[in-house]
């Protein structure tokens, strides 16, 4: 019998999870059942992905860099990656601002709706938590983000999964491996090569569980929605974000087909399991091992490129997030502070959204925290901030799911482009979890 492709299985799991969530929402005690008996399976899955993310980055980057055999290639790869990331992020904010300025979803919102949202969310713990996190980020000095890249204790970086610190360490080790004799480097490169293979196999095995995990994750998302009336009021805003995100995906497909000459449909098919997981988990960081596996084994990007471009992208390149920040900032201003909507402020939004998406952590709802900083930079009245954040809070989770999907797709696209430009894009050789199973069973 023909095997069902993984992305179909995941999609079926997602749909069933949504249906199950709605059913449980309407049954007495259903929500409690999902929280106690279903959600933990989603949490286990995310934990497993996070578990292998650090060894995976370490192994694939150290192995990749030491395979490059040429230090100047690292410089050109780094420069290309960062430039393309900034380019796609700027495009994303411009698309977002274009849409929100044309559609104007915030104009004419009835005052009773605003009052209702204000009453329900502006003093909620969710909103105050986001505001508190934003003020902690803002209080740091201007060069703190740079300082944070250089760890003083790598085991602490592993424990905190500080992606940029781990990348720095791996690059450092990889470069030094290139600078010592081949004979001395061999044991360590072989070790990381083997570790990389093992972790990739772990991804294959964990993914067998993915269709069930997304069922649990989505059922849990559905039971959290309780005010469909407010959701409908925010529909115009949400649709603007979704339209922007779809435009961004089309933009990536054009880039892939023009630059790498690969079929966009083929690209989507290969990367779709990572996209579906990004949607289900709302976290580019948790999705990273799967993105790396798909990009290396199914898109044909060499390890030395994917090992660098993808972990950096998971933290630095968040096109979906910056597009959303642009739209959300202007939407909030259209509702609460229309006099602030000047051309200069919109230019500042482009700059700060790009910076904010670089500074956003790759975890659920990081984007809304950084949005607070975007708003503060343009001088949004501080007394209106809790109301502004409350305004978009109700639809944040579904939009987070969509923007995380775009963030992951953007990283995969850029890794294809960088690989192609360095002659590191090859015919993919997908591996299955049971390739060697017959020998050991
Ligand atoms: N959840 C997003 C990510 O992990 C970040 C955000 O936009 O909140 O990519």
Spell out the helices and strands N to C.
Answer: HHHHHHHHHHHHHHHHHHHHH
Largest sheet: none
CATH superfamily: Sodium:dicarboxylate symporter
Name the CATH architecture.
Orthogonal Bundle
Oligomer: single chain
How far is it from the N-terminal to the C-terminal residue, by CA?
A: 22 Å
Low-confidence segments, given as residue ranges, are none
Tally the beta strands. Answer: 0
Assign the CATH class.
Mainly Alpha
Spatial extent as radius of gyration: 22 Å
Which ions, cofactors or small ligands are bound in this entry? aspartic acid
Number of helices: 21
Note the beta-strand portion. Answer: under 5%
Q: How confident overall, as mean pLDDT? A: 91
The helix content, as a percent range, equals: over 70%
Summarize the structure.
This protein is mainly alpha-helical and 441 residues long.
Structure description:
This protein is mostly helical and 441 residues long. It has one domain: Sodium:dicarboxylate symporter (Proton glutamate symport protein), CATH 1.10.3860.10. Helices cover 80% and strands 0% of the residues. Helix 1 (6-26) packs parallel to helix 10 (210-224), helix 3 packs parallel to helix 16 and helix 12 (235-260) packs parallel to helix 20 (396-421). It is globular. The model has no long low-confidence stretch (mean pLDDT 91). Aspartic acid is lined by residues 282-284, 318, 321, 360, 362-367, 400, 403-404, 407.
């Amino acid at each position: 019998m023909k095997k069902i492709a993984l992305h179909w299985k995941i999609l079926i799991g997602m749909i069933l999870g949504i249906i199950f969530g709605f059913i449980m929402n309407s049954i007495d005690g259903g929500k409690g059942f999902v929280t106690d008996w279903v959600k933990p399976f989603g949490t286990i899955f995310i934990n497993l992905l996070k578990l292998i993310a650090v060894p995976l980055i370490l192994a694939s980057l150290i192995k990749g860099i030491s395979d490059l055999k040429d230090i100047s290639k690292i410089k050109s790869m780094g420069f290309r990656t960062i430039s393309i990331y900034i380019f796609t992020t700027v495009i994303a904010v411009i698309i977002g601002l274009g849409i929100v300025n044309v559609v104007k979803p915030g104009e004419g919102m009835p005052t009773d709706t605003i009052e209702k949202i204000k009453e329900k969310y502006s003093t909620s713990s969710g909103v105050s938590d986001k505001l508190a996190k934003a003020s902690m980020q803002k209080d740091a000095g201007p060069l703190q983000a740079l300082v944070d890249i250089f760890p003083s204790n790598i085991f602490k970086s592993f424990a905190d999964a500080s992606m940029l610190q781990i990348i720095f360490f791996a690059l450092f080790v990889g470069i030094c491996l290139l600078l010592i004799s081949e004979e001395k480097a061999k044991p360590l490169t072989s070790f990381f090569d083997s570790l990389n293979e093992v972790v990739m196999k772990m991804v294959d095995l964990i993914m067998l569980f993915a269709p069930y995990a997304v069922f649990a994750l989505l059922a849990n998302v559905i039971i959290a929605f309780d005010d469909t009336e407010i959701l409908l009021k925010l529909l115009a805003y949400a649709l603007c974000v979704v339209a922007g995100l779809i435009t961004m995906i089309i933009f990536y497909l054009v880039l892939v087909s023009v630059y790498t000459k690969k079929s966009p449909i083929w690209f989507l098919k290969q990367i779709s399991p990572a996209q579906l997981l990004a949607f289900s988990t709302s976290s580019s960081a948790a999705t990273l091992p799967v993105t790396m596996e798909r990009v290396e084994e199914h898109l044909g990007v060499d390890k030395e490129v994917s090992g660098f471009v993808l972990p950096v992208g998971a933290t630095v390149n968040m096109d979906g997030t910056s597009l959303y920040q642009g739209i959300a900032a202007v939407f909030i201003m259209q509702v609460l502070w229309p006099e602030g909507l000047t051309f200069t402020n919109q230019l500042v939004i482009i700059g700060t959204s790009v910076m904010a998406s670089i500074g956003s952590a790759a975890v659920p709802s990081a984007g809304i925290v950084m949005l607070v900083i975007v708003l503060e930079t343009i001088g949004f009245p501080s007394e209106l901030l809790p109301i502004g954040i409350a305004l978009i809070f109700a639809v944040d989770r579904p939009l987070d799911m969509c923007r995380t999907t775009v963030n992951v797709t953007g990283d995969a696209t850029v890794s294809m482009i960088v690989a192609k430009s360095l002659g590191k894009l090859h015919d993919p050789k997908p591996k299955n979890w049971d390739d060697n199973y017959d020998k050991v069973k």
